[in-house]
Design a protein that fits this description.
There is one protein chain. The chain has helices spanning about 1-15, 25-40, 50-80, 90-115, 180-185, and strands at about 130-135, 145-150, 160, 165, 175, 190-195. With about 200 residues, it is an alpha+beta fold. The protein folds into two domains: about 1-115, Up-down Bundle (Methane Monooxygenase Hydroxylase, Chain G, domain 1), CATH 1.20.58.1030; about 130-195, Ribosomal Protein L9, domain 1. The strands form two sheets. It has a four-stranded mixed sheet, covered by helices on one side. Strands 3-4 form a two-stranded antiparallel ribbon. The longest helix has about 35 residues, at about 50-80.
Length: about 200
């Protein structure tokens, strides 16, 4: 497997075009690395074989990292230039990733073309942009004071200082929360105080 990896690495480094890899190449490399690590566990740490194994492992990891980075750059270049990458050159994993990225690229290019032709229509978000969330309850005077805030960003549900759950909230929601929680959210830039008259 070392020789196959070396040949693939050398070809990718030397040639500006994408080289062919067998569909199961990464699976075999993974198995190869696992065998090296398993052998590492049973060998005497001071033996010559262990020293050779450590050098082999370091070389394999370096070549594999460079191979992956080089192929990544070439694949991105092909996809962004709308060039079809022959599936015979790709591993099983690369084929799945390229298909997903190609779909995104095509959709984005169509969006850009439509925009340039003035054919974009307003798209509404899935939810209404403003919801007003106000929780009213009979509370004792010591905990009845609230601060009203408007959310700038979406956040998951939070536990209030009064030990009650609030939220989740999306951007532009308005809520009445315990002052301690409101101050924290404002400090973090997630909300702004709203003056209520």
């Amino acid at each position: 497997m070392y020789n196959q990896l070396y040949a693939a690495w050398q070809r990718e480094i030397d040639d500006p075009t994408l080289g062919a890899l067998p569909p199961d190449f990464y699976f075999k490399i993974s198995e190869y690395l696992r065998r090296i690590k398993d052998e590492d566990k049973i060998l005497d740490k001071k033996s010559v074989k262990m020293n050779l194994l450590l050098h082999e492992s370091a070389n394999v990891e370096r070549m594999l990292k460079e191979l992956l980075e080089t192929r990544y750059r070439k694949l991105i270049k092909n996809v962004t230039k709308n060039q079809k990458t022959p599936s015979g050159l790709l591993t099983n994993e690369e084929t799945r990733m390229v298909e997903t990225f190609t779909d995104f690229t095509k959709t984005y290019h169509k969006f850009a073309d439509d925009l340039m032709l003035g054919q974009i229509q307003i798209t509404e978000p899935d939810e209404a942009p403003i919801r007003i969330v106000v929780k009213t309850e009979n509370a004792s005077p010591s905990v009845s004071k609230r601060s009203t805030i408007r959310f700038l960003k979406s956040i998951p549900a939070i536990m209030g200082a009064d030990m009650k759950s609030y939220g989740p909230f999306i951007a532009e929601d308005i809520a009445s929360l315990p002052p301690q929680n409101a101050q924290i959210l404002v400090k973090q830039g997630l909300a702004v105080l709203v003056e209520v008259s």
